[in-house]
Amino acid sequence: MIRMISTEGTSGLDPDDRESSAERLRPRLFGIAYRMLGDVHDAEDVVQEGMLRWQRTAPSAIREPEAWLVAVVTRLSIDRLRRARTERETYPGPWLPEPIADERVAPDRGVELASDLSMAFLVLLEQLAPEERAAFLLREVFESDYEEIAGVLGKSSAAARQIVHRARERVRSARPRFPAPPDAKARLFDRFVEALAADDKEELLAVLAPEATLTSDGGGKISAARRVIVGRERIARMLIALERKHDHPFAYALQHVNGEPALAMYHGGELFAMNFIETDGERIVALYRVMNPDKLAGLR
Hints:
- About 50% of the residues lie in helices and about 15% in strands.
- It is an alpha+beta fold.
- A hairpin with a 2-residue loop joins β3 and β4 (about 260-265).
């Protein structure tokens, strides 16, 4: 259930108090927008537009500040996501969400910085239509009730319930039945780096699941595979070739990004890529490599 700041509206607050009541909600609003869009800049724009609308709206017209702002930001995110999907059709190669440092999310409860921020989860959400994505996030991550979701989407409660159910089934069918703990990812990253450093193809193959996938996002600015690579033999061959290609070896550092262990990849002292994995607990089943420098700027 979305936690309400006030049940009496904000008409009795002076302007400074009214502004501060909205600012306290900014982290949560950003959390919704980022999960909807997978883009930090777009999420910030959406939240700022929501705040501007708040300022332009008469206090007497707002009964519940949090519900009002959540609804506005979610609707703006739906509209922005529809436009973004059209733009992504011409994106050079696979598109991956922009990684975000944990402190940027500034959660007000622990669950908001868990698996629902992981790269694999955000990629999975791309399969949902904008309204489905909004309904699913509001219900499953932010614990809104169906009446609140219906109000945001302009639907009946029954329709909102059906949208959430449909989205939940699609997500459930694609997510691992038993999510791997963070320490499993850290251990796999250690083996992964050791195999690359030793130029050990056999060990790299042992770390990867047979039908593992590699998705690279270079944004047309960094040389990257234009299609998702499937199969551990092809992935291992490509990764080892990349290591051998450069005169100066890559340096790796395990970090915590998007609420999960991630592997930062440096070349010449500069952040070259951020790697995320999905695992069954024993092997890597999906590797996501964000190389687009524009998407790494916030992590430098």
